[in-house]
Amino acid sequence: IYSPKRPAGLELLQLTSEETCIDYGCMWGALTIPLAQRTRFVLGVDQTADSLVFLQARLKESRCSNVALLNHDIRFMPLLSNKVDIAVVNGVLEWIPEQGAIELKTYYARRQKKKYAGNPREHQKSFLRRVCENLTERGKLYLAIENRYDLNAFFGAKDPHTGLLFTSFAPRALANLLSKVQLGRPYVNWLYSFKGLSRLLT
After folding, report:
1. pTM value?
2. What is the pLDDT along the chain (202 residues), one digit of tens a residue?
C-alpha cells in the first residue's frame, strides 16, 4: 500500500487539481492518498470499519485534509446530489457479486457453503451503472481489475480471489462447478478480458 507503483495509473486521468473524486472500496488508501494529493476532494468509501481507522491515521500522517471517509457498502451507494469528476474502482469490481461481509483470512481458498441470488455480471453492471450516475457528464472512471486470461493462470497460478486453479479463464459453468465441488459455493468473482470488459462497460 506504500508502493509508489500503485498510483502510477492515476497519470492516465490527466488530473488538474480541481477534481472531486470517489474511491470505491478504498481500504487502506493505496489510491485515496495519492488522489487527495492531486485533487480538490476525495470521498473514500469502504464497508470495513477497521480499514477506515487505519486510513484515517494515514491521512493524518500524510496531512491530507481534503478527504472524507464513509463506512458504507459500495454495492448500495446512494445517488448523490453533488456529482463527482472521478470515480476510482480499483480491485473492486470482481468482489461486487459477493453477498454479506467477507473476511479474507477465513474465506480465501476455504470451504464455506454459500448461496447467491442473481447473475454476477448483472450485479457488476448494476454497480457500474450507479457509479456512472454519480459522475458528472464529463466525469472519468478509473477501473482496475485482473485480466481473465492472465498468462500465469495457465501455468498454475491460483485465482487471486478464490485460491482455485483455472477458474478465472475456464467457461463460467465449469468454473462454477469447480468452485461448488471444492469450496461449496458458486464462482462469482468474475474477471474479464480487455474485450469482455469493454463490452461490459458499453
Report:
1. 0.93
2. 888 899 999 999 999 999 999 999 999 999 999 999 999 999 999 999 999 999 999 999 999 999 999 999 999 999 999 999 999 999 999 999 998 766 666 677 778 888 888 999 999 999 999 999 999 999 999 999 999 999 999 999 999 999 999 999 999 999 999 999 999 999 999 999 999 999 999 9
- The span from the CA of 21 to the CA of 17, in Å, is 11
DSSP string, 139-167: EEEEEE--BTT-HHHHTTPPPTTT--SST
Local structure of 23: helix, strand or coil: strand
Q: Report d(CA 164, CA 183) in Å as an integer.
A: 9
Q: Residue 145 has which C-alpha cell? A: 481489475
